[in-house]
Design goal:
Layout: E1 3-6, H1 16-31, E2 35-40, H2 50-63, E3 72-73, H3 78-90, E4 94-97, H4 101-113, E5 138-141, E6 148-153, E7 157-162, E8 170-172, H5 180-190, E9 195-199, H6 206-216, E10 222-226, E11 229-230, H7 239-243, H8 246-251, H9 256-264, H10 278-284, E12 295-296, H11 299-311, H12 315-322, H13 335-345, H14 349-360, H15 368-374, H16 379-392, H17 399-413, H18 417-429, H19 437-461
Parallel strand pairs: 1-2, 2-3, 9-10, 11-12
Antiparallel strand pairs: 4-5, 5-8, 6-7
Helix pairs in contact: 1-10, 5-6, 9-11, 15-18, 16-18, 16-19, 17-19, 18-19
Bound molecules: glutamic acid.
């Protein structure tokens, strides 16, 4: 059985790099009919917040990634960690170290002066004497004194670290609290992890964790260290690029499946396929195919994917989602026509909501540049005679009915389409651009169209 996990430190929001790591773990577990677990790494009470944990759970909920069992909180497990520290002490695989901070600093300075890599010198490793008084000791684990630590990384290949790069590192601080690499290794082993997929910023924690696994006689999982996501220009992904809160994507009108599709392709590929349904991801994803080089965040691609998923969503679903953006169409009689128009044109739900509002609500004010451009010459006169024609026409329902009226109108007057098109746009939605005018009129009807035209005419006359 494959067991994976996502193990965020709740120091802030879930950002997209974290979500991608979670997704990779999720897909690999689910593809194999295994388990995907969530572990909240909240041992550092000064940097963690309950709010951040809540935000992480909320983001999981939004993207629909379910995990097995309840989340595991490291802060609940101090006694457990303590028992494993005692076990290592009892077995002579760890020891108390009484070195003071001053002594450590001095050692470091001396080593640096000799151009050596600063490392603990093992002075308490085999200590049997009388410990100095008044010092609360730390606990250090016995790291190998020679040879190498070697592991096979599923993405990066064989990683070899010489024993002299790892010293007897601290596993419990002088106040008794366990340290990061110790608890991660204990948890991963006890939670039954078979595969650990995580950011490659953790690559050099792995040898330390392996030392813990070995000291405790735990079986090693397979490790996959995923290269990071780069922002524009190959720089570190910044808030501006989208390193921010996953929930910002919801607020900006992205669909969760578009975001997941976008993320799976950041660092993983299958031929040149871009669009992956969740079913396809589950069928094909394999961490062994993750790219060994960094991937690049591309906001245009995310927009493109989002447009694709919007276009392919049912109107019912879109109507439900648009409520969060202040547009209520679930029981609107023009729901189908409105959504059919705008799902083809819009890249985000937010943009959709704004454009639908432009149609449903009268323009609050008119774009000045548009007025200047559209309302010259005979525009007022053309508009008012078009309004007259509209009023006289019967049985206007479909966009094609309105289109026929427009066509007849330009023919009768012998004018180009723009002569009526531009002023009519300004009258109906307050600006140039926007959707097809026949579509707009068919949604709001003759009476409202005429009223909007008259409103603009009055305004221009003033
Ligand atoms: N808590 C770590 C982080 O948020 C992840 C640790 C791991 O995946 O091993 O970066």
């Amino acid at each position: 059985m494959v067991v994976t996990r996502f193990a965020p430190s709740p120091t802030g929001f879930l950002h997209i790099g974290g979500l991608r790591t979670a997704l990779f773990n999720y897909l690999w577990a689910r593809r194999n009919g295994g388990e995907f677990k969530l572990r909240i790494e909240d041992t550092d009470q000064s940097r963690n917040s309950a709010e951040a944990t809540k935000a992480i759970l909320e983001a999981f909920d939004w993207v629909g990634m379910d995990y097995d069992g309840d989340p595991v909180y490291q802060s609940d497990r101090f006694d457990l960690y303590r028992s494993y520290i005692m076990k290592l002490l009892d077995e002579g695989k760890a020891y108390y170290c009484y070195m003071s901070k001053e002594e450590l600093d001095k050692l470091r300075e001396e080593q640096m002066a000799r151009k050596e890599r600063p490392r603990y010198d093992g002075r308490y490793r085999d200590f049997t004497g009388e410990p100095p008084e008044g010092v609360d000791p730390v606990v250090r684990i016995k790291a190998p004194l020679d040879g190498e630590i070697v592991f096979e990384d599923g993405i990066k290949g064989t990683i070899t670290i010489s024993a002299d790069e790892v010293d007897d590192f601290i596993i419990a601080r002088s106040d008794g609290t366990p340290t990061y690499n110790f608890v991660v290794a204990v948890d991963d082993a006890l939670m039954g992890m078979t595969d650990v997929i995580r950011g490659d910023d953790h690559l050099y924690n792995t040898p330390k964790q392996i030392i813990v696994y070995e000291a405790l006689g735990f079986k090693l999982p397979r490790f996959y260290h995923v290269p990071m996501i780069l922002g524009e220009g190959g720089k570190k992904l910044s808030k501006r690029d989208g390193a921010a809160d996953v929930m910002d994507y919801k607020r900006a009108g992205y669909l969760p499946e578009a975001l997941l599709n976008f993320l799976v392709r950041l660092g993983w590929s299958r031929g040149d396929q871009e669009i992956f349904t969740m079913e396809e991801m589950l069928e094909y994803f394999d961490p062994a195919d993750i790219n060994a080089s960094a991937s690049q965040y591309n906001p245009d691609k995310l927009l493109w994917l989002n447009a694709h998923y919007i276009k392919n969503s049912s109107n019912e679903r879109l109507a439900g989602l648009l409520e969060e953006f202040g547009v209520y169409l679930l029981s609107h009689d023009k729901r189908e026509i409105l959504l059919d128009i705008f799902k083809e044109r819009c890249k985000t739900l937010k943009e959709m909501a704004e454009q639908i509002k432009e149609v449903l609500e009268r323009p609050e004010n008119y774009d000045e540049k548009a007025i200047k451009k559209a309302m010259k010459g005979e525009a007022v006169q053309i508009l008012s005679s078009f309004a007259e024609k509209l009023k006289k026409s019967e049985d206007l329902h479909l966009p094609s009915d309105y289109h026929a009226v427009l066509e007849e109108f330009v023919k009768e007057r012998g004018i180009g389409f723009g002569k009526i098109g531009m002023p009519l746009r300004v009258a109906l939605i307050g600006r140039l651009g926007g959707p097809d005018l026949s579509d707009v009129m068919s949604v709001i009807g003759v009476k409202e169209s005429v009223e909007r035209i008259e409103r603009l005419i009055n305004q221009v006359k003033e």
